[in-house]
Design brief:
Blueprint (H helix, E strand, L loop, with lengths): L1 H10 L1 H18 L5 H19 L2 H23 L16 H25 L5 H19 L5 H19 L2 H28 L2
């Protein structure tokens, strides 16, 4: 039993490390801690390899995107032009023009990714992979800009991703994304409370 566990840990250590750094990333982002971004950066780099091996090509490309957006989020949270009394970029609600742009751009990103996966790869689940990836692209940009509604997109993206990882037998990642879903719900209410407190 312990020998089998040791073999499994050895075979899956990159995924396990990615999951641990990913969990750290989400907990820190709920707390609006600047260390969110280096934790996310490490997790994303590790998951590029995991998803390449599992043929989740859109998910792999998403991790590359996360690497880039981590630098952007890190910079924006440090240097954003709207600061509160504590010198931090405050949480904001999505503006009407941002909501319209999001509603238009997300289906376009989804359609583009789906088409690429369906026609040019051997992805076993192009529809769900494209859906979770397109939602993740938009949600991460919203997170980087501290827009409250990013958490709502994450709830949907995390649930879709959980199904994908069960299908592929990526069990540490499945557990991680179940936890992500619960934490995204918590994150929404924490950020909403933060927004209300700053508006008092």
């Amino acid at each position: 039993m312990s020998e089998n566990l040791g073999q499994w840990l050895t075979a899956n250590y990159i995924e396990i490390l990615g999951a641990l750094f990913g969990l750290t990333y989400i907990v820190l982002s709920i707390r609006q801690n600047i260390l969110t971004w280096p934790a996310g950066l490490i997790s994303s780099i590790l998951y590029v390899g995991v998803f390449l091996h599992s043929k989740f090509y859109a998910g792999m490309v998403l991790q590359v995107y996360y690497v880039g957006i981590s630098f952007y989020g890190w910079y924006f949270w440090l240097k954003g032009n709207r600061k509160d009394k504590q010198g931090e970029v405050p949480v904001s609600k999505i503006k009407k023009n941002e909501a319209i742009l999001t509603a238009l751009i997300t289906p376009f990103i989804f359609a583009l990714i789906f088409l690429i996966l369906f026609r040019f790869t051997d992805s076993p689940v192009p529809f769900l992979d494209a859906l979770s990836t397109s939602l993740g692209i938009v949600a991460t940009l919203m997170l980087a800009r501290k827009i409250l509604e990013n958490w709502l997109l994450w709830i949907v993206a995390d649930l879709v991703s959980t199904g994908l990882y069960i299908y592929k037998g990526l069990w540490p990642t499945t557990v991680l994304f179940l936890v992500y879903t619960a934490l995204a719900i918590l994150g929404y209410f924490q950020w909403k409370r933060s927004l209300m407190m700053k508006n008092l």
